[in-house]
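This is your field. Have a critical look at the following sequence-structure pair:

***
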Amino acid sequence: MSSSSPPDVAPATRSSLADDLRTLSVAEGDTVMVHAAFRRVGTVLGGPDALVDALLDAVGPRGSVVSYQDWELGLDVWDDTGAVRSELRPHVPPYDPTTARPARDHGVLAATIGTRPGVRRSGNPGASVAALGARAEELTHDHPLDHGYGEGSPLARLVALGGRVLMVGAPLDTMTLLHHAEALADLPDKRRVRVEYPLAAADGGVAWRWAEELDTSRPVVAGLADDYFADVVAAFLDASTGTQDARRGRVGAADSVLVDAAAITSYAVTWLEERHRT
């Protein structure tokens, strides 16, 4: 156990973080998708688990907390065609939503949510989300393998349920929900990829499947900045802050925003279509 002296500034706690979230207008019964740069929250007694517990406290037993996960493999295993490289094929573990780890570059909060007891994880490896709470199963079941950010996806369900997106110190260009807007927007020449996935089969073996998806490694169409999500979110906040659709505040020491999922999806679809009409 550390014997370091107490901090000069009182640490955030589960209780104080829950108060911050309620002040931001996270409410009982909400379904909230969260992205966080946890270090920006400051010193937190209990670490990232305290923030997850605070979120669950704020949404209550009827609410749910959602996190984008992706899939941690440790390295890029695919060749230029989207196939798993032949020399790695015998060694790549199959994707199993009950045991898969979230990609490390999504941060410690995503890892904390993804490994919580009772978590539900969706079945699309690259577009997977994890959920805790009352609607966890509803949000994550039967995630389409093709077009995993579009209709029938957990992101579509988040919108349909009147969900919200919370950015706790996270860069605005990391708002995963905008991939759903990309999927919905009527745009010419969307960038797409085909990817081969090994999936855990019921008999203990591996089922190899190909999936078609948006190329989320770069903008959905040519001519957009690599971080254009940040431009969309910033414009939405300028237009909506102070309304029910967007709130700004602090969670711990982190500048944070809370937006309505349906409102920002609609805004982003229009933003994209106005700049890239067919």
